[in-house]
Amino acid sequence: MADIELRNLSKHFGSLAAVDDIDLDVEAGEVVCLLGPSGCGKTTTLRMIAGLEDATAGDIFIAGARVNELAPRDRDIAMVFQFYALYPSLTVSENLAFPLHAERITKEEIDRRVREIAGLLDLSHALGRVPGRLAEGEKQRVAVGRAVIRDPQCFLFDEPLSRLDIAVRQEMRGQIKQLLNGLHKATVIVTHDQIEALTIADRIAVMRDGIIEQVASPHDIFAKPANVFVAGFIGTPQMNLVEANVIDADEDTATVNMLGQEVVLPLHAEISLQGTAPRRNAPVTVGVRPRGLAPASETGPTTISGQVDLIEPMGAETLIHLRIGEDDLRVVTSRGHPAAVGETMHVAPTPGQVHLFDHDGMRIAS
Ligand code: ATP
């Protein structure tokens, strides 16, 4: 039994299905990130779990009990919002201790928990300070600490790091991951920041238009996207997604017509065993990440050729845009790779880096 279970959960605002018949399980000790573009229903899902929004249909279970009719305070959850609210006149220690005053525990136990949480969140040095004398990252850590100190059944985080600047955000990602690892609670985090989701989550639920497109580990979301939407949404620079027609296919290659060229693509052998090998003449979408294309010195059966249109230095790497007819193919090379605008460049997909999607955009092979 999972600690949080959502069954056929929906939320309608008038005719809009903000959340549309979703199922999700979050085990104790597991961190699940709801990730997706603005308006896809992430926050509404979280607010329904918290009890801040009534579900239109479906069931919410926390620790096995149906909680749809319970008030937020009776659901044994703690929520951390994007906008942290600390008591400005109380010290860090008093802010952290505040949620414990309603519980029947001794002053010694309160002090022990405050010191423990402060240690976990690297706040021990600041226990005597008021919020006005804290850096932004420290304030957010106090907000997180105040939510987790009560030892609730599960945690809900709504864009917890989005207000912080990049350097503090990077540091906090690691700290939150460490903290959550030590607390063994079911946790749901809403974010639109894929790096945050890929770093912190045990599993990611990618949402679009109120539905969950895929739930999987960060590795599988990235390496085995279930459909064209997830493939295009995850990863920077974005995966190349190119319409193609299958000329021929066997268990480890597919010969396709793409971008006006005949190209032999390397595939994983596993696909023919699954019986999902691409069919001859079938229209497919070929997905290759820009880092999954390697420059080749000359043209060959596995290469795609195009004209260098734009060169974008990215530090250690360079993003090259190849123009092929009306299409743009993005390739990431190492910084030193020679390239000049206007010249012809050949690239070949690296084995293991090709994704094939069927006519409906669903994954058929890689
Ligand atoms: P964001 O990342 O921008 O916060 P989100 O994925 O969290 O987006 P939600 O806030 O859950 O998305 O909103 C989902 C949809 O429901 C959106 O189209 C939004 O406009 C709509 N919506 C949310 N709350 C309400 C409301 N109270 N009344 C009407 N429509 C709403």
Main features:
alpha+beta, 2 domains, 23% helix, binds adenosine-5'-triphosphate, 366 residues, Rossmann fold, 9 helices, OB fold (Dihydrolipoamide Acetyltransferase, E2P), 36% strand
Ranges with pLDDT <50 over ≥5 residues? 270-275
Strand order of the largest sheet: 6-7-8-3-9-10
Largest sheet: 6 strands, mixed
Number of strands: 21
- How much is the average pLDDT? 90
Share of β-strand residues = 35-45%
Shape assignment: elongated
**What is the class of the largest domain in the CATH system?**
Alpha Beta
CATH topology of the largest domain: Rossmann fold
**H and E order:** EEEHEEEHHHEHEHEEHHEEEHEEEEEEEE
- How many domains make up the 3D coordinates? 2
Oligomer status: single chain
Which architecture of the largest domain does the CATH hierarchy give at level 2?
3-Layer(aba) Sandwich
How would you portray this structure in words?
- With 366 residues, the protein is of the alpha+beta class.
- It has a 6-stranded mixed β-sheet, with helices on both faces. Strands 13-12-11-14-20-21 form a 6-stranded antiparallel β-sheet. A 5-stranded antiparallel β-sheet has the order 15-19-16-17-18, with no helix packed on it.
- It binds adenosine-5'-triphosphate (ATP).
